[in-house]
Amino acid sequence: MRRKSRVAAYAVCVRDGQLLLARSPGLDGSPEWVLPGGGVEHGEDPADAVVRELAEETGYDVEPTALLGVHSSHRVFRRRGLRRPVDHHGLRLVYEARVTGGELSFEVNGSTDMAAWHDLDAVPGLPRARMVEVGLRLWRERPATGRVVVPAPEHG
Prior knowledge:
By secondary structure, the protein is α+β, with helices and mostly antiparallel strands. The protein has a single domain (2-141), classed as Nucleoside Triphosphate Pyrophosphohydrolase. It is 16% helix and 44% strand. It has 2 helices and 8 strands. The protein has helices at residues 46-58, 130-141, and strands at residues 2-12, 14-15, 18-25, 31-34, 37-39, 60-77, 86-102, 114-119. Strands 5-1-7-6 form a 4-stranded mixed beta sheet. Strands 2, 3, 4 and 8 form a 4-stranded antiparallel beta sheet that branches. A hairpin with a 2-residue loop joins strand 2 and strand 3. The longest helix has 13 residues, at 46-58. The chain is globular, with a radius of gyration of 15 Å.
């Protein structure tokens, strides 16, 4: 089985009771809302990565104001055909960030197709990745350990 590790940085941006989210295709291909952010490039500081990723996905310039925590995800992805399964370990650094400039715009030819502000109260009703819940819990609870446990969704 092939092993793969990925380090990524994401931001929780809340302004006037709204959360900034990006839209991306989910594992099944249907669109879901995600925290803006993404992979840290080799040699890149994660705080710089979150600034770069937010500019790419949302058009905004942001300033990370706090490191909220780290989320670790370990899953095995079964592949169809002749491809081997992948044992994937993701480390996700979650920052709080504030918008300092720029203008809302959509990523072109990237991993997301749009970005939007959503009322915090409406987020639970959105089709969203589990990382949105992880990020919001870290933002709300600010645990001293920098860790929250959000159960994986059940698949039937």
